[in-house]
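protien #1 (seq + structre)
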Amino acid sequence: MSIASSTKKAVRRVGIGAWIACASACGDEPVEDTASPEDTQAEPEDTGPFLPDGMPDDPRPLTVTVSGAIDETLIFDTPTCSHPTGSSNFRAFWRNGSGAHVFVLFAEILGDYTEPGTYNGQEHTARVKLQEEAGGSGYYFAADAAEGDTLTIMVDHVDVDGAWGEFTVSGLHGDEGAITLSPATVPIWCTEVD
C-alpha cells in the first residue's frame, strides 16, 4: 500500500469518526441551513458622522450675501466651534474650505458663556464679525453698538459631540463703512467642539 493511499484511508476514518460522534451527540437527523437570502440583513448604510439627537440638518454650503461698503457673495462650507473645558468663552466660525475666499464669519461670547441660551451685545461680551484672514485685502467688519448694530447669539446645544444654534446681526461696520448680511440670521452648526 502506498503512503498516499494510507493517508486517504486515515483521513476518511477521522472524518467518519467525527461524523459518528456528532450524530450521536446531536441526534441522527442532519441539520439543514434554511436561511434564505431574504432572511439575511444587509449592513446599514454609512450616513456620515453620528449626529446628536436634536441637531438640525446640515446647512452646508452656507451662502451669505454681503452688501454695502463691499458687495460679495460668500460661500462657507467649513464650520468650527470652540468651547475649551472650563472656559467661559464660546466661538463659532464659518470658513471656505476650497480657498475661494479668505473671509471668516464668526460669532463669539467672551467671558460670559455659562450654558446654552441667548446672549446679546448689550448685556454680554458677544460679538459678530466678518474679516479676511491672510491673503485678502484686510477687510474687518464687526457689530458696533455705537453705530446702532444689534446682535443676538442663541446657543441651543454645546458638548464635545457638537454645537448648534444661530446668530442674528442687524449690520456690521468697519473702516470701509457699513455692510449688511443676507440672511441676517446665520446657523451655528458643528459636529465637534474643540
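ok now protien #2
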Amino acid sequence: MPYYGKYYMKHQGRAERLAAELKLEDPQVLEPGFAGHITDRENTLIRDAMHMSPRIRVWWGFPRHNAELCGQQAYSAVKRVAMYGDPENVLHNAKLVRQSFAPKVMAKAS
C-alpha cells in the first residue's frame, strides 16, 4: 500500500468523496506535493475542492476564506504547492502560497 501521509489518511474519506464528486481519476491529486506537474483541469478541480472544503484549503496552505482562490496568483500557488508541497507540513505549504502572492503585495507597496 502506498504512503499517503498522516493528514491524507486521517481525512481519506473526505478527500475520496470530494474526488468522486469532482470526477477525479486519482484522489491523490488532492494531496500537496503528490501530483508534480498538474494540468489546467487538475488545477481547476483542486481549487474547486478547496472551495468545498476548508480542511483541504488549509492543508494546501491557503487561508480558510475563499478570497484568494481566484485569479492568476491562486493558479500559480496551486501549481507551486502541487509540485513542491508537503502533505505533512502545512506551514511549508502556506509559505509556498505566500511566495506566489508576494509579487502582488510588492506591487501595492510601490
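Helices lie at 6-10, 12-21, 40-52, 54-59, 72-84, 90-109.
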